[in-house]
Amino acid sequence: MPYSHPSVDGDLLNTRLEQEEASVLHQAAIATPALLRSHTQTTQSVSLAAVRHAIRTAQHWLLDRQEDDGYWVAELEGDSILESEYILLLQFLGRRDEEKFRKLTNYIRRWQHPDGYWPIYPGGPPDVSASVKAYFACKLAGYTGNEPFMRRARKAILAQGGVTGCNTFTKLYLSMFGQYEWSGVPTIPPEAVLMPKWFYFNIYNMSSWSRAILVPLAMINATRPYRSVPDGAKLDELFVGGRDIKKMGLPWDRKPLTWRNVFLVIDKLLKLYNLSPVKPFRKRALMHSLQWLLEREENSGGLGAIFPAMTHAIMAYKCMGLPDEHPAIKSELKELAAFEIEEGASIRLQPCVSPIWDTAIVINALVDSGYPADGEAVNRAAEWLLSKQTTKKGDWAVKAPNVEPGGWYFEMENEYYPDVDDTIMVLMGLYKAYCPNGEHWTEAPEHARISMKKGLDWVFAMQNRDGGWGSFDKDNDKILFQYVPYADHNAMLDPSSVDITARALEMCSYYSLGKSDARVAKALDYLYREQEGDGSWFGRWGVNYIYGTWQVLRGLARIGEDMERERIQKSVRWLHSVQNEDGGWGETCQSYDPEHPKASGPSTASQTAWALMGLMNAGDLDSPFLKRGIAHLLNSQDTTGTWEEEWFTGTGFPRVFYLRYHYYRHYFPLWALAQYHEFTTGDKPDAPTANRTEDSRFANLEV
Fold it and tell me: Is 79 a catalytic residue?
């Protein structure tokens, strides 16, 4: 993503950088060949002068990219399913644009593996749903199917079982275009929105993102729209053995008595109900669903501010007869268009945008790395975050009805769906911005203090009964939802996760809440229950065990746990055991697949930073593993001050959808280097050192 903003607050750092540069470069010139390029050495020393130089250049890189309003936001990259579904949406709306379709398919084709299939993350295995959608999108864009890349795609799709092997969402999409039978799609009854909140299968017992996706899908499923496609775009050739309606039914478990089979029986009953001329609650359910969607358009960057919910909402509006000029449809299309990134002959889309998340992490990394908390860049960013705090109750209030709003969301605007993780990260950033000298948070300026208090109250109101925290809802853990036929997107629930829970403990440490607090004690119990046998922890929102383990070790250390405990040191040994030969750490998205090795993959900047922060917080400051890892970060930083990273290290839905946060490669390494400096010297990089002059700081500071 191109940036044209001038450096913000750059002068505050320029003088320091110029004063340091000669000494730093001299130290680095001595250190780099011997210390940073010998990846096979068992032990390496690290020049703190080189660390400071890396920190300064990384700070400048970030400051140059701050937006005029004070926030930071980087591209959020998903897989080719986004572009494929965008073409299907435009086809559904009758908005064929040959040039746009071709640019979208140009990007889709970049994702194709040489063997013909499409993965859902770089280097991933075949994914039949992504492959079928990509193939269909290319046909809608005018490809005949005889092109070499299409022939390879067809062969790969058939090898994966063909169209009948797709997930239920893909089959529903295809049914709208006559390319699959509605009888083979699970029934999503719109009457579900009428279920009382005490009923087990009410919509508020499913995750917020599933709710935002499935309510409009239920409307589509009930109305069964049909949009024709050109004869040349049909998919008959993707059915193994030919298109046969008998092969399109939902597969049953071999064991007769399973929850899946129970729900398939219910699905058959619902299909009979759909055929009945008497459906007493159908009209009411559809109108209630429509109203539910329209209410969530307010103060929102689209329904849920996420691509799938927004596309489904537009289709649902059309199924309900809303005209193209309706404000809701126009607004959704405008927000989707804002996700487009056009570069040359291709267009790609973001699944959503991440300004709150990016900005909060940048504040934490900048202040911890010695950038002045009262500097203009941090001040503008903190004030911008304060302006984004929610003021209205959203879906979360169903489970926490007597709680006032106070959370933050992930996107630019999403009032109905704040989440715990963003709120925690924002609260840590606000503390560091307004209490830089370790003051009690109640000493912050009044407007910040009021905001922080609301945020804290909201976070603790969202704690689950098991002691942990989920993302968007409280106690969202009704296990039977995982067996319903349309649960194959692997995201029906939003239970507690160790990474969010551990980050909550980290936040508590800044707000003077310790282990004597009953809420903290419950969270600690939850974290220890979730530790894996090898010492690691599962990462729900980052890939994967490296992410979870880092965050837990950080949370435990900040809250005052004894980091010499055997079970904690076991996690340290696990991190040692998965370090790569080049000194870094890496883990592919495939670690979410059963039986796949943990923490296996090429080294990345973000995952190396996570592992290092885990080790440092566990007290592992003198090991060769730590030093080789720091050396890896220093050696892999480029001349502009950042790091390259092509792999996906963010998680949307495990085994279904992954993300590449384009700033993960930058602010996490900066944060890790900052922590290394503070752990080894006792000071932030800019903090004055007693009994040393500014010039002498750079001498004799090697570890």
Answer: no
